[in-house]
Each structure stands twice: as structure tokens, then as C-alpha cells.
Amino acid sequence: MLKNLIYSASVILIIIISYKVYLSFHESDFKNRNYENIKMINSGEEAGVFSFAVEGSIENSIDVFQNEIIQNINSHKDIAFNISTGDAVLDGSEDKYRILNTALKGLNVPSVIGIGNSEISDGGARLFYKHFGPYYFSFVYGGSYFIFIDTTGTTAFDLQESWLSDELIKADDYSHIFVIMDKSPLKQDAIKNKDFRTFLVDKFSEHKVTGVFTNGNAFEENIEKGVTYYSSGGAGGLMLNASATGDYHYLKVDVTPGGAVVKPVDILTVSKNPFIKMIEGIWIYIHSVFYAQFVNLSLGIFAVWLIFLIMYRKVSKDVNYYRDFNRTHKSIDLNRKLNIAMFTNNYLPFVGGVPVSVNRLATALRKKGNRVVIFAPYYPGADDSNDDVVRCKLLRYKKTDKFSFAIANIYSKQISKEFDKYDFDVIHVHHPFWMGKKGLKLGIKKNIPVILTYHTRLEMYAQNMPIFKLTFKNILSHGMIKKFAQKCDGIIAPTESAKEYLENIGVSREKLVMPTGVDSEYYENIDECTIKSIKKTYAPNGEMLLCSVSRLSSEKNIRFLINGLKYIKENTPLKFKCIIIGDGPDRGDLQSLIDEYSLKDYVLLIGTVNQNEIPRYYLASDLFVFSSQSETQGMVLLEAMSGKCPVVCVRSSGTDDMVRNGFNGYKTSPDITEWAEKVMYLIENREILEKMSMNAFKYSKEFTLDKMAENVSMFYKKLISVHENETRENENV
């Protein structure tokens, strides 16, 4: 029942939001309405005797303006057009302008709308210009000159002063001059600029303006320096003060060659009792507000209702964070060979940490007799003849000089068809989105346990987002990992620090800490001549050879590395070379930085090297240097140690667990000087370097592929057993 209510509230919210989108984009638009209506006014037969209507503070009124004033104006056949002095809308949002436009369609005569404070609120000035036109303007009709002034501050007052002076000179040739403006220059609190107020009053008097119409709360008539000022604000807005007769009204202006007569036309009579009058005014205003804001009010009500239902569901649901100590488990056969499905967003031949990790784990598990099928994107030229790899059709593949990526079509039926060919025991996903989400969905549908390996610190890739970079970095990335991980049966964290992070963001699933192992086969049987050849190629004069392996992109912090090497060059007489293996979108910029620092004889970007050949470069190098802080595990650190390279790196989540200071290398703070000094210390003290080299080699032997496969296989079986027991218990409930 509660779930149905939540679904219903969600559907209603979606409908309301869709309706607002429809209003903004698909309902017939209107532009330059004042210009069109002035053309319509001038297209009629002009006469020296005519009438027009003036009202202020419509504020999207239904009871007063739409139901009463419009009908009354339509009944006066002598009224040629209608004028609003301002505040015709409740606020400046798009839907209020559209409601006003719909109401004005009920008039039999054209309307000209002046700008007021309500029109510019909520960023509405732009919409007023779009829908009605300029903020200040003039037109001529029947021997009379009409001037509209912007008193909201949207247009600079000094700009209008020059324009108004010219307009009034032109207007002197006409029988009558009428000025329309939102705020009265007679009220100090209305227009705060004293000089502008004085300018207006003096100019109106100098040019003998027939009448000035302003916005207000009630009808008022004042004479200042021979000019009559009329205030009208009873067209529907909140009216707590009495008008002259205590009624809502508009002004009817009858123009003859001899002058103009202005009369308030009372529309809706309210009680003479001040208190009752105030209550009635508030009620009429509330009714109009409710109509104008109906969609927004509904949206707010159902949003609050949905939040309440979700919160109620959470607080009313019994939870027990302790395991059931009385539950009996049916154990799984530990010798059982498993059918394993792996889902990954990228895979070989794409070069990256995740593809390498997936390939090594799959290879090691297969050697133990398990069947592993990898679901991965299709890459041109991929050779999977010796592996169980399902290459998924692509939504998009893009390859440039700087980068390449393939996006699998997770909506293709091909994936499910291939998946159904196997009787999988467990699903292992390597990303918390896209292909990972597809794997999780299949696991839930087929009732198969799902394990996630947390490979990537998503927050470190926030700079690649087109918008909301900080939101993604500080909120969305962590929330995405937590939400996905909590739906899985277990998590593999490559390091203790990665496990600690998962616990800090609230991931409570079963966890295994298991770094990606090193394939020692690629380090064996490499002849000494190959190693010497690499050494001679890159350090022909016996220089110390440093090595780094990384994707050349901003999150890998290669600029830090280059700045550190610049410091070393400037502060040690010892000759060295540093080769950086890898490619990526920042290669051109990094090469420019190397050239700028005059390091082209010291730092070499040698590009992509076949994964199986990289061990040769480790064995040829004296020291491995690393600066990335975006790793979840230091996979390349272990690989370098297997090649007898100590490591100098920047301390981070992926390196802190792998490097023991003073034993197999050094880890420093992200300070260029500190990092560079450690590198200099090792290359200047060969005995210490050689000792650390042997320590690094011995340490790497703790992380073999065989040990990794054994631990992961046992983790799979434990989670399969738990999953099967929970399924059995649920069936018996």
C-alpha cells in the first residue's frame, strides 16, 4: 500500500513537471505583444474623441480582472484600447506571463503593458522584453502622445532623461500628452533617486502634460505644478486600503480636443466595514494567487507528500544490523569449479588499469579450472580467439589522436542472449555504472550473486564533466558508488585504504581486500641482452634510468612529475633520464611543458608499450617514479617492484598500502621539493638504492596471480553460499 502511494505521488510529480516543461516549450509562444497591439491601435480609425482604459496591479487576477474588469471594458464600445501601468503579473516567471496573455485575449480591444516591479521579479525582465518589447517607448493616437517610462531601475535613469526630453519636445505638437509609469515621482519611497524624481516633475510641468498615470494600491488624484497625477491599483492585486469608493476599479479616460476626463469605474464592491473589507481583499488575492500558482503549488504539495511517504517508509521499516545467530548455512563445495561472468566498460586492446586487472584475474581463475566469460565493448582489431569474451555491440566508438573510447550498447538483446547460454554461478562487475549496471540487473533478474571490484576513484574525474563539476566531485560520485555497492552481494577492494573509503561512505556489504596480482611469467626468461639494449637506447652514457608508467591525462598528475624532474635536474650533478610509458589526451601539452623546461634530453614520452613487454623496461630501470593520486591500487607499483625497482611516489589511497618508507621506496606529501629530494637521495646513494631494489622484489612476491585467484575464488564461494541460503529462507517465509 505504502509503495503504491509512493509510486502514485512520483507519477503525479512527473506529470506536473512535464506540464511545466510543455508550457515553456510547446504552448504557442508570443513575442513583441506591445508592438503588435500598437500597430493594431494605429490601424483603426483615429478620432479626436476617444476613450481608453487604464488599470494597475492586475497581478494575474481572476475574480477582479479576468471575470469583472475585462467584461466591463468590453461593454464600453467607445474604449479604443487598454493600458496597464505595471504589476500585471504576480511575478516574472514564464507561466505568469502566459496566464496574463491568456487573460488579455478576452479583451475586445488591444492592450499595451507597462513594466513594473512584478514584471522584473524572478529574472522576469528578459521575459518582459521577449513577450512585450522595450521597457520604455511611445506611440501616437488620435492627436495624443503616449509615453511609457521604466521606473523599475532596469533601464538607467540618465539614459531615459535624454530620451524623454526629446520625446516631450515631439509631443508638444499634439493636443494631449499622457505619461504611463509604474512608480509615482510624487512619492519619495517609490523612486528613491531624488534627481530623477525632480527631473520628471519639472519636465512634465514644462511641457504641460495632460495626465500622468501611475500604479498604486487605490485610486488617487493629485496636482503638482499644474500636472494631474492619477494612481490606479485596484485591478486585482491585494488591496488592504480603501479606494475612493472602497471598490476594485479601473480608470476610464475620455479624450476630447478640449481635454481629458478621468473617472474610476468601480467593479467589485466590498464591505464598508474596514475589517471585513480587509478580509475580502485578502480572500480575492489568495484566490488569484492560487489560480496563478496552481501548478507550482501542486508541485510543492506532491513533492512534500512524496518526501513524507519515503521518510515514513524508512522510519517505519524494522531494521536489524546484527546477523541472525540462529541461522544455519548450507556450505558450498570448496572444490567446485565456477562459471563466472565479468562485466567491464573497457577491455583489451584498450590500455588501462581496469582492462589489465580484469585480464589477469580472468587468466588466473581459468588456470584453476573455472570458466570466465568477459562481457566487454567491441574494439576494432581485438583478438579474443583464445578467450571467452563476448564483444558487445556499440552505441558509439570514437578514436582520435588524443583518446579513444567505446560505449557498449547495454540495451542490445545480444547481451542477454549470450548470458543465457551459460549457467553462471556468480557475476563480477568492474564498474558501478553502464556495463556494471547491466551485470547487476541480470544478477537480480536471474537471482545470481553480484560482486563489484572498486577500481576507480570517480571523484578524481570530475574535471571531465561538462557541468556540475563540484557537485559530481563532492556528492554524486560517492553517492553513485555507495548506491550501487549496496545492491551487490560483496565488494573487492584492492587496498585497505580503498576498503576504508567504502566504509566511510556507508557501504556495509561483505568486503575482500585483494590487490591485483603480478604475472611473474612476463619477468622470467628475459635475456640480459634485451635489458641492456633498452638501457643503451635511453641511457646510452650510463645515466641513472628512471621509469614511470601512466595514462597521460590530468587526473594522473604528470605535471607534478615533470616539475619534480626539473627540480632534480637543477639540483644534482648526477645525470639521469626518465622514460614515461603511456599515452593519453594530455601528451601534446606535456611535451610542450618538457620543451619549455628544457628537459627534452632528460624526459622522454615513449608512448604505448605492449603490456607484456613493460617488464623489460622495469628490469632496465633503476627507480620507478610516480605522482598519481587518483589510484585505488598501486598496480604499476607492484609491477615495478617485480622488476626490482624501488618506488618514489606521492602518498594517496592507491600508494599508501604498497610502499613502506625506507624499505621498498618512499611516499611523500604532494610537495615537489620533498618528492624530488627523495628521488635525488636514492640515485645519489647507490648502495641504499640496491638494497631497496631487493626489498621491493621480495615484497612483490607476496602478490602472485595464483594467490589472488585463490582468495577471490573463495570469496565467490562464500557469497554464493550466503546468497543461496538467503534465497532458500525467503522461499520458506
Task: Describe the structure in your own words.
The chain crosses the membrane at residues 6-25, 282-312. This is Glycosyltransferase involved in cell wall bisynthesis. Residues 351-521 form the Glycosyltransferase subfamily 4-like N-terminal domain. Residues 534-698 form the Glycosyl transferase family domain. This protein is of the alpha/beta class and 733 residues long. The chain has 3 domains: 31-294, Purple Acid Phosphatase, chain A, domain 2; 339-513, Glycogen Phosphorylase B (Rossmann fold, 3-Layer(aba) Sandwich); 526-703, Rossmann fold (3-Layer(aba) Sandwich). The chain is 42% helix and 19% strand. The protein contains 23 helices and 26 strands. The strands form 5 sheets. A 7-stranded parallel β-sheet has the order 14-13-12-17-18-19-20, with helices on both faces. Helix 7 (157-171) runs parallel beside helix 8. The protein is elongated. The mean pLDDT is 88.
What is the element layout, followed by pairings?
Blueprint: H1 2-25, H2 33-43, E1 50-55, H3 62-75, E2 79-84, H4 94-104, E3 111-113, H5 117-120, H6 124-131, E4 137-141, E5 144-149, H7 157-171, E6 176-181, H8 194-206, E7 211-215, E8 220-224, E9 227-232, E10 247-256, E11 259-269, H9 274-292, H10 294-316, E12 339-343, H11 353-367, E13 371-377, E14 389-392, E15 394-399, E16 404-408, H12 413-419, E17 426-429, H13 435-446, E18 450-453, H14 469-487, E19 490-493, H15 496-504, E20 510-513, H16 528-538, E21 544-549, H17 558-571, E22 576-581, H18 587-596, E23 603-607, H19 614-620, E24 623-625, H20 635-642, E25 647-650, E26 665-668, H21 672-684, H22 686-700, H23 705-732
Parallel strand pairs: 1-2, 2-3, 5-6, 6-7, 7-9, 12-13, 12-17, 13-14, 17-18, 18-19, 19-20, 21-22, 21-24, 22-23, 24-25, 25-26
Antiparallel strand pairs: 1-10, 4-5, 8-9, 10-11, 15-16
Helix pairs in contact: 1-10, 7-8, 11-23, 16-19, 17-21, 20-22
